Amino acid sequence: MATPPATRPAPELRRRHTRERLRTLGFLSPWLIGFTVFFGYPLLATVYFSFMHYNQIQAPSFVGLRNWTYVLDRMPLFGPALWNTLWLVVVMVSLRVVFGLGIGLLVTRIKTGAGFFRTAFYLPYLAPPVTATVAFVFLLNPGTGPVNEALGALGIPAPNWFNDPDWAKPSLVLLSLWGIGDLMVIFMAALLDVPREQYEAAELDGAGVLARFRYVTWPAITPIVMFAVVTGVVQTMQYYTQALVAGKLASGVSIGPGSVIQPGYPDGSTLTVPQLVYSLGFQNFDTGAACVLSLVLFAIAMAVTSLLMRRSTGLLSAED
Amino acid sequence: MAPTNARPPAMRRARPALHWIAVHTTAVAAALFFVLPFVFVLLTSVMSDAQAMSGELWPHEWHWSNYTEVFHTPGFLTWWRNSLLYAGLGTLLTVCSSVPVAYALAKFRFRGRRPAMMLVVATMMLPPQVIVIPMYLVWAQQLHLSGSLWPLIVPLAFGDAYAIFLLRQFLLTIPREYLESAKVDGCGELRTLLRIVVPMAKPGIAAVALFQFFFCWNDYFGPQIYAAQNPGAWTLSYGLESFKSAHGVNWNLTMAATLLVMAPVVLVFFFAQKTFVEGVTLTGVKG
User: Fold this and answer.
1) Would you give per-residue pLDDT tens digits along chain B (287 residues)?
2) Which one of B66, B94, B110 terminates a domain?
3) Which of A1, A28, A50 to mutate: most B Cβ within 10 Å?
4) Domain end: B66, B83, B99, which one?
5) CB atoms A46 and B133 under 8 Å
6) B130–A43: do the CB atoms touch at under 8 Å?
7) Do B241 and B186 lie in a common domain?
8) What pTM value is reported for the model?
9) What is the rounded CA–CA span in Å between residue B146 and residue B20?
10) Which domain holds residue B58?
11) Helix boundaries (H) for A37-180
């Protein structure tokens, strides 16, 4: 387009604006359609179904708040599922952040074989969740699992891991610590960004290892720690595959992936909210109750997301 | 070891050595935690059926034929093909549909850009279970496409929030001057995007493509919802679980299959290590 003249007649300006708006719409169109069809519609439909009785065979009928009072007040599995999800959010996220930071610190200090160690620490993160879970159910199986064999040989009392209601969630935490690679990389990058001079200045001032961490490292990496915590919370609220596969495999009654069993083996100790949504909607065909639970999950997720947007300002503020 | 100011010179030299030993001992211990599971899985995968039921750790004989047996398990090759279809086509569609959206969000000035960006982030954070029931009803009852992977692939042709977000972060780093000089040369927006932006954004696009490929390859929830009724539409990630039951109590074949499902991801990683680590960093640090 030629350089615009200094004074331009109004209609041409307006035409240009229309053209620019159409261009923007054109570029955004895939997402605008996708957002409306695959997000807007199902969200509204979820609200609609939450007030309906619908077993996916007969036509839906209006039942007012019955699904809501049922789920929030009387449904026996709602409390345990919410408790398990919260337990995992608190324990798994905090341990992952601490462990990830520890591995990140370790990696930045390794002088010999740094490449080997970095790859070794990172690789488990790449294992597809289902394969990692299958592997851990095998490693930790109480009968012949290598871990319990080793513990037995050392004379240490071995827990029943995925088969013990008290140990099932800690076993899942162990599995999540194995796949720490994502946090390791993020923390490693953040730690390497801390200016060296600050450490040297602190050392000259006589600061010990702990003081240097407290007054130099920590302030510099706080935003990344916050980021890790909030994204960890969001991910853990969706925690599904590992808990489901571990429960099914450990229960030993699995007759293939299509099998219908009560989720959360052993004793509902690994039942998470997303699993309960699946179980209600696709095993019990109680669409209304499943949709109520979906909306509860949605509300929590949005609350955390708005916290993320406010706290880690970098996420959106990087406008050019 | 309490540090004193009047430290003898010998000790000064000893400290870095002790530090080296402490760091590398910890590193070896950590490496054992991360690597041993792979080793045990590999060792068990080559055991005989009988030995796999015992608690022994070292195979008496190495039965590499377990791996060929896995390939002969009914369905395994079909699931392999389905995984490739879902991950390959899904990645292609995601990249093609997300790049223009990310470009508009990064470089166009228009009203509603910020709210649009916030909606993208909100979608990204949303647990997939929240909207799955109405979506399933549409695909199953109106379109009769349950029992296939199409309900998972088709939506990817309309942009993926996570891909859009990452690509936008990357495109923000392209200086505006490049785009303006292209416009002075008479390029329209589409040509600017294809000729200037895409070549410059190759590392970002590669990282997003890798993430999407891994996401599809690893997806369990999606195939469980839409493909469960039809074993012919299962993916590796979904079908793997059935090995344990198909082969009874034997862990050896299940472990062999586990490694075979991990293999493509690990191979892709070794070929694209730099891209991948850059991508992970992009999600967090440059955010």
Assistant:
1) 444 444 544 555 567 888 899 999 999 999 999 999 999 999 989 988 878 777 777 888 888 888 998 888 888 899 999 999 999 999 999 999 999 999 999 988 888 898 999 889 888 888 888 899 999 999 998 999 989 999 999 999 999 999 999 899 888 888 888 888 888 888 788 888 888 889 888 888 988 998 899 999 999 999 999 998 898 999 999 988 877 766 565 788 889 999 999 988 888 888 887 776 676 666 554 43
2) B66
3) A28
4) B66
5) yes
6) yes
7) yes
8) 0.89
9) 58
10) 9-66
11) 41-49, 66-69, 78-109, 114-126, 129-139, 146-153, 165-178
